[in-house]
Amino acid sequence: MPKLYDNHGRIINYVRLAVTDRCNLRCFYCMPEEGIKYVPQKALLTYEEMERTIRLLVSMGINKVRITGGEPFVRKNMMDFLTTLSQINGLERINLTTNGTLTAPLIPDLKKLGIRTVNLSLDCLDKARFFEITRRDEYDNVMHTFQQLLSHGIETKINAVVMEGKNIDDLIPMARLTKDNPVSIRFIEEMPFNGEGAHYQKLTWNHKKILAHLKTAFPNITKLQDPPNSTAQHYQIPGHQGNIGIIAAYSRTFCGSCNRIRITPKGMLKTCLYDDGVFNIRDIIRSGASDHQLKDTFLEALGNRAKDGFEAEQKRSFGLPITESMASIGG
Ligand code: SAM
Ligand code: SF4
Predict the structure, then answer these.
(1) Euclidean distance between the first and final Cα of the chain, in Å?
(2) Under a CB-based contact definition with an 8 Å cutoff, are residues 35 and 74 in contact?
(3) 188 in ligand 1 pocket by Cβ < 6 Å?
(4) Which of 144, 188, 217, 317 has its CA 20 to 30 A from that of 130?
(5) Cα(20)–Cα(23) distance, rounded to whole angstroms?
(6) Which residues line ligand 2 (CB under 6 A)?
Protein backbone atom coordinates (compact mmCIF):
# COMPACT_ATOMS: atom_id res chain seq x y z
CA MET A 1 0.00 0.00 0.00
CA PRO A 2 1.31 3.50 -0.78
CA LYS A 3 1.76 5.86 2.15
CA LEU A 4 0.83 9.51 2.25
CA TYR A 5 2.76 12.07 4.32
CA ASP A 6 2.42 15.79 4.93
CA ASN A 7 5.23 18.37 4.93
CA HIS A 8 5.83 17.72 8.64
CA GLY A 9 6.40 13.98 8.11
CA ARG A 10 3.04 13.01 9.58
CA ILE A 11 1.33 10.04 8.00
CA ILE A 12 -2.09 10.83 6.53
CA ASN A 13 -4.32 7.76 6.40
CA TYR A 14 -7.70 8.97 7.61
CA VAL A 15 -10.36 11.11 5.95
CA ARG A 16 -13.51 12.46 7.57
CA LEU A 17 -16.22 12.90 4.98
CA ALA A 18 -19.17 15.12 5.88
CA VAL A 19 -21.90 13.88 3.55
CA THR A 20 -24.43 16.62 4.30
CA ASP A 21 -24.79 19.79 6.35
CA ARG A 22 -28.47 19.06 7.02
CA CYS A 23 -29.49 18.00 10.48
CA ASN A 24 -32.64 17.17 12.40
CA LEU A 25 -31.24 18.42 15.73
CA ARG A 26 -30.16 21.92 16.69
CA CYS A 27 -27.44 21.30 19.24
CA PHE A 28 -26.56 24.46 21.14
CA TYR A 29 -22.80 24.04 20.56
CA CYS A 30 -23.19 23.34 16.81
CA MET A 31 -25.77 25.75 15.45
CA PRO A 32 -28.22 28.47 16.47
CA GLU A 33 -31.83 27.68 17.27
CA GLU A 34 -33.02 28.81 13.83
CA GLY A 35 -30.50 26.48 12.17
CA ILE A 36 -27.90 27.36 9.56
CA LYS A 37 -28.16 28.38 5.94
CA TYR A 38 -27.85 25.05 4.19
CA VAL A 39 -25.67 24.61 1.13
CA PRO A 40 -27.92 24.37 -1.96
CA GLN A 41 -28.44 20.77 -3.10
CA LYS A 42 -26.50 21.22 -6.32
CA ALA A 43 -23.49 22.58 -4.46
CA LEU A 44 -23.20 19.41 -2.36
CA LEU A 45 -20.78 16.75 -3.54
CA THR A 46 -22.78 14.03 -5.27
CA TYR A 47 -22.40 10.39 -4.21
CA GLU A 48 -20.47 9.75 -7.44
CA GLU A 49 -18.07 12.62 -6.69
CA MET A 50 -17.57 11.39 -3.14
CA GLU A 51 -16.94 7.84 -4.32
CA ARG A 52 -14.41 8.98 -6.91
CA THR A 53 -12.62 11.11 -4.32
CA ILE A 54 -12.47 8.31 -1.75
CA ARG A 55 -11.24 5.79 -4.34
CA LEU A 56 -8.48 8.19 -5.33
CA LEU A 57 -7.49 8.91 -1.74
CA VAL A 58 -7.41 5.18 -0.97
CA SER A 59 -5.07 4.67 -3.94
CA MET A 60 -2.84 7.35 -2.36
CA GLY A 61 -2.68 5.80 1.13
CA ILE A 62 -5.91 6.56 2.99
CA ASN A 63 -7.29 3.43 4.67
CA LYS A 64 -9.94 4.78 7.03
CA VAL A 65 -12.97 6.96 6.41
CA ARG A 66 -15.41 8.42 8.88
CA ILE A 67 -18.85 9.36 7.60
CA THR A 68 -20.20 12.38 9.40
CA GLY A 69 -22.28 15.50 8.72
CA GLY A 70 -24.72 17.21 9.56
CA GLU A 71 -26.59 14.05 10.32
CA PRO A 72 -25.49 11.42 7.78
CA PHE A 73 -28.83 9.59 7.80
CA VAL A 74 -30.91 12.59 6.79
CA ARG A 75 -29.29 12.34 3.35
CA LYS A 76 -31.33 10.07 1.06
CA ASN A 77 -29.84 6.74 -0.05
CA MET A 78 -27.06 6.87 2.52
CA MET A 79 -27.10 3.09 2.98
CA ASP A 80 -26.49 2.63 -0.76
CA PHE A 81 -23.50 4.94 -0.53
CA LEU A 82 -22.15 3.05 2.48
CA THR A 83 -22.55 -0.18 0.51
CA THR A 84 -20.50 1.31 -2.35
CA LEU A 85 -17.79 2.43 0.06
CA SER A 86 -17.69 -1.00 1.70
CA GLN A 87 -16.67 -2.46 -1.66
CA ILE A 88 -13.58 -0.27 -2.13
CA ASN A 89 -10.45 -2.41 -1.92
CA GLY A 90 -7.90 -1.01 0.48
CA LEU A 91 -10.45 0.90 2.55
CA GLU A 92 -9.99 -0.98 5.79
CA ARG A 93 -12.36 0.88 8.09
CA ILE A 94 -15.57 2.80 7.69
CA ASN A 95 -16.66 4.50 10.90
CA LEU A 96 -19.67 6.68 11.48
CA THR A 97 -20.59 9.62 13.66
CA THR A 98 -24.32 9.98 14.16
CA ASN A 99 -26.77 11.70 16.45
CA GLY A 100 -28.66 8.42 16.78
CA THR A 101 -32.12 9.77 16.00
CA LEU A 102 -32.62 7.70 12.83
CA THR A 103 -29.93 5.08 13.31
CA ALA A 104 -31.45 2.23 15.36
CA PRO A 105 -33.32 0.42 12.53
CA LEU A 106 -30.21 0.54 10.33
CA ILE A 107 -27.86 -1.14 12.79
CA PRO A 108 -28.21 -4.73 11.50
CA ASP A 109 -27.40 -3.52 7.97
CA LEU A 110 -24.51 -1.38 9.19
CA LYS A 111 -23.12 -4.47 10.85
CA LYS A 112 -23.47 -6.49 7.64
CA LEU A 113 -21.49 -3.80 5.81
CA GLY A 114 -18.62 -4.35 8.22
CA ILE A 115 -19.02 -1.12 10.18
CA ARG A 116 -17.48 -2.01 13.50
CA THR A 117 -17.35 1.30 15.35
CA VAL A 118 -19.98 4.00 15.73
CA ASN A 119 -19.59 7.32 17.53
CA LEU A 120 -22.90 8.36 19.01
CA SER A 121 -23.39 11.94 20.14
CA LEU A 122 -25.08 12.13 23.52
CA ASP A 123 -24.31 14.97 25.90
CA CYS A 124 -26.39 14.07 28.93
CA LEU A 125 -28.51 11.38 30.55
CA ASP A 126 -31.55 13.48 31.27
CA LYS A 127 -34.46 13.93 28.88
CA ALA A 128 -35.18 17.54 29.79
CA ARG A 129 -31.54 18.55 29.52
CA PHE A 130 -31.27 16.71 26.21
CA PHE A 131 -34.11 18.86 24.92
CA GLU A 132 -32.48 22.00 26.22
CA ILE A 133 -29.17 21.16 24.49
CA THR A 134 -30.46 19.74 21.18
CA ARG A 135 -33.77 21.68 21.03
CA ARG A 136 -35.53 18.52 19.87
CA ASP A 137 -37.44 15.78 21.71
CA GLU A 138 -35.36 12.82 20.52
CA TYR A 139 -33.82 11.50 23.73
CA ASP A 140 -35.69 8.19 23.70
CA ASN A 141 -34.69 7.47 20.10
CA VAL A 142 -31.05 8.19 20.82
CA MET A 143 -31.05 5.97 23.92
CA HIS A 144 -32.69 3.23 21.88
CA THR A 145 -29.86 3.52 19.33
CA PHE A 146 -27.35 3.29 22.16
CA GLN A 147 -28.93 0.07 23.43
CA GLN A 148 -29.12 -1.40 19.93
CA LEU A 149 -25.48 -0.62 19.20
CA LEU A 150 -24.46 -2.42 22.37
CA SER A 151 -26.73 -5.39 21.78
CA HIS A 152 -25.39 -5.79 18.23
CA GLY A 153 -21.82 -5.79 19.52
CA ILE A 154 -20.81 -2.62 17.69
CA GLU A 155 -17.95 -0.81 19.37
CA THR A 156 -19.62 2.33 20.67
CA LYS A 157 -18.06 5.63 21.55
CA ILE A 158 -20.25 8.31 23.08
CA ASN A 159 -19.27 11.88 22.17
CA ALA A 160 -20.26 14.42 24.81
CA VAL A 161 -19.38 18.08 24.46
CA VAL A 162 -18.71 19.58 27.90
CA MET A 163 -20.59 22.83 28.39
CA GLU A 164 -20.59 25.22 31.29
CA GLY A 165 -24.13 25.63 32.60
CA LYS A 166 -25.53 22.79 30.47
CA ASN A 167 -24.34 19.28 31.28
CA ILE A 168 -21.72 19.44 34.04
CA ASP A 169 -23.98 17.43 36.37
CA ASP A 170 -24.05 14.67 33.76
CA LEU A 171 -20.31 14.06 33.51
CA ILE A 172 -20.00 11.74 36.48
CA PRO A 173 -23.18 9.73 35.74
CA MET A 174 -21.97 9.36 32.15
CA ALA A 175 -18.56 8.15 33.32
CA ARG A 176 -20.43 5.57 35.45
CA LEU A 177 -21.92 4.11 32.26
CA THR A 178 -18.50 2.53 31.70
CA LYS A 179 -19.02 0.29 34.75
CA ASP A 180 -21.27 -2.28 33.12
CA ASN A 181 -20.99 -1.33 29.44
CA PRO A 182 -18.03 -1.85 27.11
CA VAL A 183 -18.34 1.72 25.93
CA SER A 184 -15.95 4.62 25.55
CA ILE A 185 -17.32 7.91 26.91
CA ARG A 186 -15.49 10.80 25.31
CA PHE A 187 -15.68 14.24 26.84
CA ILE A 188 -14.90 16.91 24.26
CA GLU A 189 -13.83 20.49 24.90
CA GLU A 190 -16.33 22.86 23.32
CA MET A 191 -15.04 24.63 20.22
CA PRO A 192 -16.43 27.85 18.70
CA PHE A 193 -17.86 26.08 15.62
CA ASN A 194 -21.47 26.89 16.46
CA GLY A 195 -22.66 29.03 13.55
CA GLU A 196 -22.55 32.17 15.70
CA GLY A 197 -19.11 32.72 17.19
CA ALA A 198 -17.56 31.89 20.54
CA HIS A 199 -20.03 31.30 23.37
CA TYR A 200 -17.43 32.23 25.99
CA GLN A 201 -14.54 34.67 26.33
CA LYS A 202 -12.41 31.81 27.53
CA LEU A 203 -12.97 28.04 27.63
CA THR A 204 -13.75 27.13 31.23
CA TRP A 205 -14.05 23.35 30.84
CA ASN A 206 -10.71 22.44 29.35
CA HIS A 207 -9.27 18.92 29.45
CA LYS A 208 -7.49 19.52 32.76
CA LYS A 209 -10.66 20.71 34.47
CA ILE A 210 -12.68 17.81 33.06
CA LEU A 211 -10.15 15.34 34.46
CA ALA A 212 -10.03 17.10 37.83
CA HIS A 213 -13.82 16.96 37.99
CA LEU A 214 -13.85 13.22 37.23
CA LYS A 215 -11.23 12.68 39.93
CA THR A 216 -13.56 14.10 42.57
CA ALA A 217 -15.78 11.04 42.07
CA PHE A 218 -13.18 8.55 40.86
CA PRO A 219 -9.90 9.35 42.65
CA ASN A 220 -8.34 6.08 41.39
CA ILE A 221 -9.03 6.77 37.73
CA THR A 222 -5.99 5.51 35.79
CA LYS A 223 -4.35 6.70 32.62
CA LEU A 224 -4.36 4.16 29.79
CA GLN A 225 -1.96 4.07 26.89
CA ASP A 226 -3.47 5.99 23.97
CA PRO A 227 -3.66 4.34 20.54
CA PRO A 228 -1.43 5.93 17.87
CA ASN A 229 -2.82 9.19 16.39
CA SER A 230 -5.52 9.34 19.05
CA THR A 231 -7.09 12.70 19.76
CA ALA A 232 -8.34 11.44 23.13
CA GLN A 233 -6.41 10.94 26.34
CA HIS A 234 -7.77 7.65 27.67
CA TYR A 235 -8.57 6.75 31.26
CA GLN A 236 -10.27 3.92 33.07
CA ILE A 237 -11.98 3.62 36.40
CA PRO A 238 -10.61 0.46 38.03
CA GLY A 239 -13.05 -2.46 37.70
CA HIS A 240 -15.06 -0.75 34.97
CA GLN A 241 -15.54 -2.41 31.58
CA GLY A 242 -15.39 0.66 29.40
CA ASN A 243 -13.06 3.62 29.29
CA ILE A 244 -13.14 7.39 29.24
CA GLY A 245 -11.57 9.68 26.67
CA ILE A 246 -10.91 13.37 27.13
CA ILE A 247 -10.49 15.28 23.88
CA ALA A 248 -8.61 18.56 24.07
CA ALA A 249 -10.23 19.77 20.88
CA TYR A 250 -9.88 23.45 21.72
CA SER A 251 -6.54 23.22 23.57
CA ARG A 252 -5.19 21.25 20.61
CA THR A 253 -2.68 19.07 22.42
CA PHE A 254 -2.69 16.34 19.76
CA CYS A 255 -1.80 18.15 16.52
CA GLY A 256 1.73 16.72 16.45
CA SER A 257 0.43 13.29 15.46
CA CYS A 258 -2.58 14.36 13.40
CA ASN A 259 -3.22 11.81 10.62
CA ARG A 260 -6.51 13.15 9.27
CA ILE A 261 -7.97 15.37 6.60
CA ARG A 262 -11.55 16.50 6.16
CA ILE A 263 -13.93 16.94 3.26
CA THR A 264 -16.88 19.25 3.79
CA PRO A 265 -20.36 18.71 2.28
CA LYS A 266 -19.61 21.21 -0.49
CA GLY A 267 -16.30 19.57 -1.28
CA MET A 268 -13.73 21.76 0.50
CA LEU A 269 -10.63 19.91 1.55
CA LYS A 270 -9.55 20.89 5.06
CA THR A 271 -6.10 19.74 6.10
CA CYS A 272 -6.86 21.01 9.63
CA LEU A 273 -10.13 21.42 11.50
CA TYR A 274 -9.18 25.03 12.19
CA ASP A 275 -8.33 26.08 8.62
CA ASP A 276 -11.01 27.52 6.37
CA GLY A 277 -10.51 25.14 3.48
CA VAL A 278 -7.59 24.56 1.19
CA PHE A 279 -9.18 23.80 -2.19
CA ASN A 280 -12.54 22.77 -3.55
CA ILE A 281 -12.61 19.18 -4.78
CA ARG A 282 -16.07 19.62 -6.31
CA ASP A 283 -14.94 22.54 -8.50
CA ILE A 284 -11.89 20.63 -9.68
CA ILE A 285 -13.94 17.53 -10.51
CA ARG A 286 -16.64 19.60 -12.26
CA SER A 287 -14.00 21.40 -14.34
CA GLY A 288 -13.20 18.01 -15.90
CA ALA A 289 -9.91 17.31 -14.10
CA SER A 290 -8.33 13.89 -14.49
CA ASP A 291 -7.53 11.72 -11.47
CA HIS A 292 -3.91 12.56 -12.04
CA GLN A 293 -4.61 16.31 -11.74
CA LEU A 294 -6.78 15.80 -8.70
CA LYS A 295 -4.08 13.69 -7.07
CA ASP A 296 -1.47 16.41 -7.70
CA THR A 297 -3.77 18.97 -6.08
CA PHE A 298 -4.11 16.80 -2.97
CA LEU A 299 -0.34 16.32 -2.82
CA GLU A 300 0.26 20.04 -3.09
CA ALA A 301 -2.22 20.72 -0.28
CA LEU A 302 -0.56 18.14 1.98
CA GLY A 303 2.81 19.63 1.18
CA ASN A 304 1.64 22.94 2.67
CA ARG A 305 -0.13 21.75 5.77
CA ALA A 306 -0.10 23.93 8.89
CA LYS A 307 1.97 22.52 11.72
CA ASP A 308 -0.93 22.70 14.17
CA GLY A 309 -4.41 24.06 14.72
CA PHE A 310 -3.11 27.39 16.03
CA GLU A 311 -1.14 28.07 12.87
CA ALA A 312 -4.09 26.95 10.73
CA GLU A 313 -6.43 29.27 12.63
CA GLN A 314 -4.02 32.17 12.27
CA LYS A 315 -3.85 31.66 8.51
CA ARG A 316 -7.60 31.75 7.96
CA SER A 317 -8.49 34.16 5.16
CA PHE A 318 -8.97 37.76 6.18
CA GLY A 319 -8.18 36.82 9.80
CA LEU A 320 -11.90 36.33 10.36
CA PRO A 321 -12.86 34.51 13.56
CA ILE A 322 -14.47 31.08 13.53
CA THR A 323 -18.23 31.29 13.16
CA GLU A 324 -19.08 28.33 10.94
CA SER A 325 -21.23 25.48 12.23
CA MET A 326 -19.65 22.09 12.89
CA ALA A 327 -22.47 20.67 10.75
CA SER A 328 -20.75 22.24 7.75
CA ILE A 329 -17.43 20.59 8.68
CA GLY A 330 -18.25 17.23 10.23
CA GLY A 331 -16.42 17.52 13.55
N1 SAM B 1 -24.73 14.90 13.51
C2 SAM B 1 -23.76 13.94 13.87
C3 SAM B 1 -23.54 13.93 15.34
O4 SAM B 1 -23.90 14.87 16.01
O5 SAM B 1 -22.97 12.94 15.83
C6 SAM B 1 -22.44 14.08 13.15
C7 SAM B 1 -21.93 15.47 12.92
S8 SAM B 1 -21.47 16.38 14.37
C9 SAM B 1 -21.00 17.93 13.69
C10 SAM B 1 -19.93 15.59 14.78
C11 SAM B 1 -19.45 15.78 16.19
O12 SAM B 1 -19.08 17.14 16.35
C13 SAM B 1 -20.47 15.47 17.24
O14 SAM B 1 -19.98 14.49 18.12
C15 SAM B 1 -20.65 16.78 17.96
O16 SAM B 1 -20.84 16.61 19.34
C17 SAM B 1 -19.34 17.49 17.68
N18 SAM B 1 -19.46 18.94 17.78
C19 SAM B 1 -20.33 19.73 17.12
N20 SAM B 1 -20.14 21.02 17.44
C21 SAM B 1 -19.11 21.05 18.32
C22 SAM B 1 -18.45 22.09 19.03
N23 SAM B 1 -18.80 23.36 18.90
N24 SAM B 1 -17.44 21.76 19.85
C25 SAM B 1 -17.07 20.46 20.02
N26 SAM B 1 -17.65 19.44 19.36
C27 SAM B 1 -18.66 19.72 18.54
FE1 SF4 C 1 -26.75 18.06 14.22
FE2 SF4 C 1 -24.61 16.75 15.04
FE3 SF4 C 1 -24.63 19.41 14.89
FE4 SF4 C 1 -26.08 18.23 16.76
S5 SF4 C 1 -23.85 18.13 16.56
S6 SF4 C 1 -26.78 19.89 15.42
S7 SF4 C 1 -26.71 16.40 15.74
S8 SF4 C 1 -24.75 18.05 13.20
Answers:
(1) 28
(2) no
(3) yes
(4) 217
(5) 8
(6) 23, 25-27, 30-31, 69-71, 99, 121, 326-327
Helix residue spans in 275-330 (DSSP H): 281-286, 291-302, 309-314
* Residue 319 pLDDT exceeds 80: no
Rounded Cα–Cα distance for residues 325 and 329 (Å)? 7
- Per domain, the residue ranges of the chain are 14-329
List of residues 6+ apart from 95 with CB closer than 8 A: 64, 65, 66, 67, 115, 116, 117, 118, 119
For residue 257, give Cα distances in angstroms to 16, 152, 239, 250: 16, 32, 30, 16
Q: What is the pLDDT of residues 192-209, one digit of tens each?
A: 999 998 787 889 999 999
Can you name the CATH fold of 14-329? TIM Barrel (3.20.20)
Say how far apart CA 213 and CA 38 lie, in whole Å. 37
Q: State residue 199's pLDDT score.
A: 80
